[in-house]
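Q: What would this chain look like folded?
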Amino acid sequence: MGQKQDELLKRIQKLVRKNQELYDKNEKLQKSHTELSEQADMIKQELKESRAEAKEGSAPKPVERIKKYKMATVLFAYITGFKHLTDNDSSEVVMDQLDEVLIEFDRILKKYKIHKIKTIGDTYMAAGGIPEKNITNPIDVIMAALEMNIFLNQLRRIDGKRYWNLSLGIHTGPVTATISGKRKISYDIKGDTVNIAHRMQGVSESGKILISVMTYELIKEFFVCDYYGRMPVKYKGDLEMFVVQGIRPEFSMRERGVMPNAMFNTKFKLIQFTDIQELILDRLEKELPRYLYYHNVKHTVDVVTEVELIGWAEGLDDEGILLLKTAALFHDVGHTISYDEHEFHGTELVKKLLPAYGYTEEQLEKICNIIMATKLPPQPSDIYQEIICDADLDYLGRSDMIPVSNTLYKELSEQDKIGTLNDWNKLQLKFISAHTYFTKTARSLREVNKQKQIERIKKLIVED
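A: My prediction, written as structure tokens:
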């Protein structure tokens, strides 16, 4: 029974690794395709403008750039209130309050990194995932919409009257942005996503946050939503719609509230991790020295995958997995600064970059301690540090240990940090013979195979 379980775990691990490699390749291809499409659109636009200028002999127009976003969340908010004004109302006081509302809406958008596109009369248009692409934009926009509604509900009354209400329509999908201006850059977005969001706001009722089924599928784990109905969309059939009531009770400080608790923040950061990972892997691709044949992007991806696998098997909770994956992502990024003491340099980058993603001081300290535990020789002091140490040296118990080990030798050799290959094999034999995996999961997965690698290395050594 034990042997079958070990074999199953090995198969799962192999599948996880293959899936990660395929995912990374697909992401790179999609990224390249998007960049090429954007460049082609820009060239077409510039050619079109140049021909128009040559034909008309007019002064050159400001250059506009076209950028495509695969996923943005568009919000239309219709501010009702003007139609309720009467001759007896103090228009100056009412308009001052409207200015207060718009200023607060701008502040809310900034808080959630949502870009205000424009105000069209009493309709307010914004989009998440623009100009900086991010995977959390549907959640960000819903949180902003909830805060907008709450603000209006709590707004003071004027002469006993409540003037302002919102009807909101939200939809997620691809958009095309036209970017203009040099000093003050503005974005104008177009496409079916914009049109659908606008139409949804049109059928929404006062005080309701109406979202499309596309947005619903991306946010339903975080928010309580009720089915609203269907809306016909040209060429797309009927589109299902939902009304957002609030944050799920298990993720909120109050039932159906807008105050997320620690569980919400952890779950959110696990999704947001994809954005951070893309940022760091891109940095590694561009900035790692050419001689890093072992400490490369693939090694970082392997360790991120491995800490998650071991972490779940060891019974860690969501926050534990988040801290481990983040530490694994940053554990070798210090190589972009210096080979020696790279662990320390990695912790400095953690402190510099992660506060912008909402990590607390306590979380940052724990992540830094986990990273420092990978410094050789490993001396972990808790389960998190044990897991990353096992993940970092996972190759010692893999069937490809020898070729992987040779890449590390090549890396050290080019820096004059090691002698001959025979010297290296002797050093490896000494290290691996004294090494012990710390976690039960790693010992189960790797210890037996590690002993086989010891025998293989012994055969490679030429005695003096």
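The longest strand covers residues 65-80.
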